[in-house]
UniProtKB/TrEMBL annotation, chain A:
Residue intervals of the Transketolase-like pyrimidine-binding domain: 10-175
The family this protein is said to belong to: Belongs to the transketolase family.
Protein name, entry field: Transketolase pyrimidine binding domain
Cofactor(s) required for function per UniProt: thiamine diphosphate
UniProtKB/TrEMBL annotation, chain B:
Domain of life, per lineage: Bacteria
Pfam families: Transketolase_N
Protein name as it appears in the record: Transketolase beta subunit
Keyword Aminoacyl-tRNA synthetase: no
Domain Transketolase N-terminal: 14-268
Gene3D superfamilies in the record: 3.40.50.970
Keyword presence, Ribosomal protein: no
Length: 317, 281
């Protein structure tokens, strides 16, 4: 079994900041907009290096989305930055009409997604954003797993023409994917080969899936682990190929089980190869205040929860 | 010197286009469209510095955004009669498989449209973005926008209005169609907006009023003054007083024709008040 090592905990939002900094140097059409959260989104370096291409819009997210849409008319590639909650639910209609329906090349970059935002509590912890964004026709939806992958995704979406939702988080998590990796939108990554169960995970849950796979390996259970960084378009072939072999699947995400990765996977399975599936996700609930670790534990979003789900799903084969 | 004979003929023909589009599908918004006819004719014939053809980025030309997308009939008519697409296509307004959707969209690739509008309150924000892009591109052209007065009840406008002044977006001319009507009645009854001139000025805008918004000469001269006020550090707002339903006596001065189509008899009466000039489609 392949071992993955944590090269040192880093936050995914810093991966976004690093990617944006690099884009500032390499792509003069990239512009950045922020709604009073420059530090939180790690956009400071871009702002310092390219003040003329940085737009502080204040606490006015709807206006930010409209300005971003307008900037594409003139060839700019706007990256908007605010929390995931204010990047989606608050401005759904603006994104729907001015960006998605109008097919504008805007990159909606959303930090502090999910319960790992922590102590701020439920008002700031959106667990519905993947669903909201994936329902918009033409929207590409990406949720990255670590610092390196977030940086790679940030660089990749600048090259992709069309609206993109890029979701990442606040806490420092294991950084285990390769530095300077190539990021291919819509391409699932097989991290671990296995025969007994498929675990597909996205975002912060990918590392937890690897931890779970290691524990399973010790018990003699071989788990296939797939990193789904792109929720839409979903790499259906990778999922189907895997369940063909394993016959059961666990999906894991820091999101409501309604509307997230798990539901997208269910549709693929229902249409092609009905397969027992268990969902590691929040169960139609809001979050609350607490440390990220406490919340991941309470809401069943860690390796332990994945292990339980694996046991359950394998019994259903 | 504008060719007033031609422009007046065009205004009448655009009114006919509006009425006929809406009548054919028994849906659409004639009132606000008729009220803004002079503005659109002035804009596309005398004000916008336009290039031949259409490209989305609009580099090296002035750009117009329609924020109150429901007045699509006047927008489509003037776009067609300005050469963006065949005038005959007005026959497809609001029909299945048409590029002329109920509210304008880029989705169907209609030349002349650069953003979808219909859900109100988003146009000024988009215009600011396009204006900022022009500045980054060192493109010395202007962004024009039209909003309804009732539309200003949407809060996003005020975020945008604050931003434009704070950031000296002075290549932007926002016109407010002050017809005083919205779906449920007069704006004063539904939600009074107070003194809009004072409000825009308090937000740091240059404000200009056109009291006779259905007088072509007044509109052209007023908009030329607005253009002259651009480029001086402040965004420019034009308060354009119009009469909803202008040019058709029974549609004027009421919100009743905001979103209602004339029946056969009413169409005949309305068209008789605006005899054909440049040729129907």
């Amino acid at each position: 079994m392949k071992k993955y090592t944590d090269s040192g905990k880093k936050d995914t939002r810093s991966g976004f900041g690093a990617g944006l900094t690099e884009l500032g140097k390499t792509n003069e059409n990239v512009v950045a907009l922020c709604a009073d959260l420059t530090g939180s989104l790690k956009m400071d370096e871009f702002k310092e290096n390219h003040p003329e291409r940085f737009f502080q819009v204040g606490i006015a997210e709807a206006n930010m989305m409209g300005i971003a849409a307008g900037m594409t008319i003139g060839g700019k590639i706007p990256f908007t930055g605010t929390f995931a909650n204010f990047s989606t639910g608050r401005v759904y209609d603006q994104i729907r009409q001015s960006i998605a329906y109008s097919d504008k090349n805007v990159k909606i970059c959303a930090s502090h997604a999910g319960v790992t935002l922590g102590e701020d509590g439920a008002t700031h912890q959106i667990l519905e954003d993947l669903g909201l964004m994936k329902m918009l026709p033409g929207m590409t939806v990406i949720n990255t797993c670590d610092y390196n992958q977030t940086k790679a995704a940030t660089l990749a979406i600048a090259e992709h023409h069309g609206p993109v939702y890029l979701r990442f988080g606040r806490p420092k998590v294991a950084n285990f994917t390769q530095e300077n990796q190539k990021f291919e939108i819509g391409k699932a990554l097989q991290l671990q080969k296995g025969n007994d169960v498929t675990i597909v995970a996205t975002g912060h849950l990918v590392w937890e899936a690897l931890v779970a796979a290691e524990a399973l390996h010790e018990k003699g259970i071989s788990a296939e682990v797939i990193n789904i960084h792109t929720i839409k378009p979903l790499d259906a072939n990778a999922i189907l190929k895997s369940v063909e072999k394993t016959g059961c699947i666990v999906t894991a995400e820091e999101h409501n089980y309604l509307g997230g990765l798990g539901e997208s996977v269910s549709r693929v399975l229902a249409e092609n190869k009905p397969t027992p599936q268990e969902f590691v996700a929040t169960q139609d609930t809001f979050g609350e205040s607490g440390t990220p670790e406490q919340l991941m534990d309470k809401y069943g979003l860690n390796a332990e929860a994945i292990l339980k789900a694996v046991k359950k799903v394998m019994a259903r084969k | 010197m504008p060719d007033y004979n031609y422009l007046n003929d065009l205004i009448i023909q655009v009114r006919r286009d509006i009425l006929r589009q809406v009548h054919k599908v028994n849906s659409g918004h004639p009132g606000g469209s008729l009220g803004c006819t002079e503005f659109f004719v002035a804009l596309y014939n005398e004000l916008l510095d336009r290039k031949e053809g259409f490209d989305m980025d609009g580099i090296g030309e002035d750009i117009f955004f329609l924020s109150n997308g429901h007045i699509s009939p006047v927008f489509y008519s003037v776009l067609a009669r300005s050469g963006y697409f065949p005038v005959e296509e007005l026959n497809t307004f609001r029909l299945i498989d048409s590029r002329l959707q109920g509210h304008p969209t880029t989705h169907e690739g209609l030349p002349g449209v650069r953003v979808a509008s219909g859900s109100l309150g988003q146009g000024i924000s988009v215009s600011i973005g396009a204006a900022e892009a022009k500045k980054l591109n060192k493109d010395n052209h202007l962004i024009y926008t039209l909003c309804g007065d009732g539309e200003l009840q949407e809060g996003q406008n005020w975020e945008a209005i604050m931003y434009a002044a704070a950031n000296n977006v002075d290549n932007l001319i926002v016109t407010i169609d002050l017809n005083g009507q919205q779906i449920d009645g007069s704006t004063n009854n539904v939600l009074p907006m107070g003194n809009l001139k004072a409000k825009f000025e308090a937000f740091g805008w240059e404000v200009l009023e056109i009291h006779e918004g259905n007088d072509l000469k007044a509109v052209i001269e007023g908009m030329i003054s607005a253009k002259e006020k651009s480029g001086k550090g402040k965004p420019v707002c034009v308060l354009l007083q119009t009469v909803m339903g202008n040019g058709v006596d029974f549609m004027m001065h009421t919100h009743a024709w905001h979103g209602k189509a004339p029946n056969d008899e009413q169409l005949e009466t309305a068209l008789a008040q605006n005899p054909e000039t440049l040729g129907d489609y």
